[in-house]
Amino acid sequence: MANIPLEERQYRVIASAVDNRVDEYQAWPANVLKLESEGMEIYQDRTGAILKRLLREDRVGKDSLNLVNSNIPFVTRPGDSSANPTDEVISSTEQLLEFFKSSSDFAELAAYVAFCKVYDEIGSHITAMNVLPKGERPHHLNGVTNELDAFMQMGDEYIPVEVYNGGDYLSKRSFGELSDKYKQLQDYSNDEEPVSNPILVNRRADTEFKKETRKEFNGIVVDTDVILGCEEDHPNLTDTLDLFNLNEIVHLLPPLETASGRELTGEDYDDLVTNDPGEIRPPSKMAEAAEDLPDEYLKRVRGGVQLFYVNTFYRSATGRTEREASLVLQAIYNLLLREGGKPRQVALDEGWDEFTDSYRQVKSVRGRKNMIMEQAGEYITQLLDERILTERNNEVHARKATHPQQTFTF
Predict the structure, then answer these.
(1) Which H or E run contains 188?
(2) 180 lies in a domain?
(3) Is-contact 125 387, C-beta < 8 A?
(4) Which one of 263, 294, 325 terminates a domain?
(5) Distance between CA atoms of 246 and 240, rounded to whole angstroms?
(6) For residue 230, what is the DSSP state?
(7) For residue 247, which phi and psi values (nearest 5 degrees)?
(8) Residue 99: inside a domain
(9) Nearest to 188 by CA among 127, 144, 251
């Protein structure tokens, strides 16, 4: 297999998976197949392209069933005129769809807990940092009245947070138009006073969505690679996750506990936001609940928040040298998030290389390297003081974080 081109290897893996599932169950939900293929590190859009090829080759059929008030596409045996999956597949598909619809409150709670934990760690070191739970904040967003899933502030920047807990692979466009989720972030972004730049916490978005969010909105997309729910609310979901091979993607967690000992499962968090906000504020009242979050989830959210802060250096720079040094700093921090700790000088050298490889005016900066690198070094010292970086064994590290946008290796 090693000498077989990547796309052909992916094709064979998906084709084999489809054959096995339709042989045993007569039909299989196409969106579930795309989602479970991520467990094999194959992106959903690639799986979709392979399914189209299998359809052209008459190796599969397709149909849809109306389940939970939605038309759900199914992959069928070739030649089958209609989808006729087993009762187990139908009931499990319905259960999974209901789970996606009912778990959003818990996912929003989990994200808020993660932000509270990060605040508890670095909030006293960052100017005007704040974390608030879900709610409407039109006075912060120039009149936008959407309910935000969480809200942060760093310095003079407001950070509206959107949380998506579904199985879709988010894209900038859907059927030729801007997708609803992208338009939401667009609404939350404002480059006039008060400045607001969004963060999206989702399972996974495509490359264009992430790049455009960064470029157009000064925002960050955090790919968690997981879908969260509360085990207390979904005690019978285990068999469905086993059937659909989603145990590595869907994580059922215990209720998340406030400092006073109250256990929250999702809807009760919604109620507290309105009726008893003192139970979940300030952030210290929820920070300890982060112990029950998946470790990698917390590391990626932490990486996203800390990277967002590093990116603010460019937006607050007052001169050319500061701006260029901040771009070197961004390159360094991205490398540390992806590759782990490095000796300080190595990090500076590699950050410079990354910066000059992508900077359009590279000729103009080479003669000013010493000034730029001196400023970048001062930024590193500042990040160490602010606990965005740590130093151990003569290496600098992104503190307790991994990159918020991990890539698949298949």
Answers:
(1) helix 180-188
(2) yes
(3) yes
(4) 294
(5) 8
(6) E
(7) -65, -25
(8) no
(9) 144
Q: Last residue of a domain, which of 237, 260, 294? A: 294
Cβ proximity of 203 and 249 under 8 Å: yes
Give the start-end residues of each E strand in 219-288.
220-223, 227-230, 250-253, 256-257, 263-264
Residue 348 and residue 218: Cα distance in Å, rounded?
24
Q: Same domain for 76 and 111?
A: no
Distance CA(88)–CA(169), nearest Å, equals 25
- Which token pair is 121? 């760690």
Residues 330-341 pLDDT 10s: 999 999 999 999
Which CATH number covers residue 381? Answer: 1.10.10
* 188 compared with 1, residue with greater pLDDT: 188
Instruction: Let me know: does 132 contact 150? Beta carbons within 8 Å.
Output: yes
CA distances 138 to 108, 142, 173, 353, Å, are: 19, 6, 27, 42
Angle at the Cα of 304 from the Cα atoms of 331 and 279, rounded to 5 degrees: 155
> Residue 384: which domain range?
317-398
Q: Are residues 111 and 180 in the same domain?
A: yes
pLDDT digits (tens, 9 = 90+) for 282-302: 999 999 999 999 999 999 999
Residue 81, pLDDT > 80, answer: no
- Domain check: are 210 and 354 in the same one? no
Continuous H helices in 26-126: 30-37, 44-56, 87-102, 104-122
Which residue type, as a one-letter code, is found at position 186?
A: Q
User: Strands 199-202, 173-174: parallel, antiparallel or unpaired by DSSP?
Assistant: unpaired
Alpha carbon separation from 87 to 7, 26, 75 (Å, rounded):
34, 11, 16
Number of other CB atoms surrounding residue 164 within 10 Å = 21
CB 280 within 8 A of CB 123: no
Please say whether the beta carbons of 377 and 322 come within 8 A: no
Q: Residues 198, 249: one domain?
A: yes
pTM higher than 0.85? yes
What is the number of domains present in the chain?
3
Contact (Cβ atoms closer than 8 angstroms) between residue 140 and residue 151: yes
> Is 300 a domain residue?
no
Quick check: 178 pLDDT over 70? yes
Tell me: do 110 and 81 sit in the same domain. Answer: no
149 shares a domain with 70: no
179 and 69 part of one domain: no
Whether the Cβ atoms of residue 95 and residue 240 lie closer than 8 Å to each other: yes
Helix (H, G, I), strand (E, B) or coil at 6: helix
CATH of the domain at 70: 1.10.10.10
> Do 275 and 329 reside in the same domain of the chain?
no
